[in-house]
Amino acid sequence: MEQKNWSVVRRVASYARYDTDEEVKALNDLYDVYRLYVNFFLPSAKLVSKVRVGAKVRKIYDTPQTPYQRLMASEDVTGEVKSSLKEQFEALNLADLKKEVDRAQDQAQQGLCEQEQGSPRKGDRSR
């Protein structure tokens, strides 16, 4: 998970603290839709090998694929799981999913904006 902090978690949720129950719920709602967007529609290149040439290291990557495509190509995944994933993928609409991600991000950010404007925090005794 640490490897993906910038590319997934921090980019979508920032480095802000989500302390209150409402903020955590908004963040969880965001992750519920964002995981579908990342796993079904965002390809990534996997490092295949590293070759040292003198002082330089040459990295070789495979063809970028989504996690969904990698699972579908895997022989280790059962047909039942592949069938379930295919049904889920076919039910998704990229444009609608992106709108839902944007809405969830706005909702999560709204809670943070209220926090910054000085609204009392749950358990905050300094006010």
Question: Can you tell me about this structure?
Answer:
The chain is built from 5 helices and 2 strands; from the N terminus they run H-H-E-E-H-H-H. The protein has 127 residues and is mainly alpha-helical. It has one domain. Helix 2 runs antiparallel to helix 5. The radius of gyration is 20 Å and the shape is flat.
Secondary-structure blueprint:
Layout: H1 5-13, H2 21-41, E1 47-53, E2 56-61, H3 67-73, H4 79-91, H5 94-116
Antiparallel strand pairs: 1-2
Helix pairs in contact: 2-5
Major pleated sheet: 2 strands, antiparallel
Q: Strand tally, please?
A: 2
Q: Give the strand order, joined by hyphens, for the main sheet.
A: 1-2
Instruction: Categorize the overall geometry.
Output: flat
User: If helices are DSSP runs of H or I spanning 4 or more residues, what is the number of helices?
Assistant: 5
Tell me, rounded to a whole number, the average pLDDT: 82
Helix content: 55-70%
Compute the gyration radius: what is it?
A: 20 Å
What is the percentage of strand-forming residues? 5-15%
Instruction: Give the helix/strand class.
Output: mainly alpha
Gap from first CA to last CA = 36 Å
Number of domains: 1
Q: Stretches where pLDDT falls below 50 for ≥5 residues? A: 121-127
Helix and strand string, N-terminal first? HHEEHHH
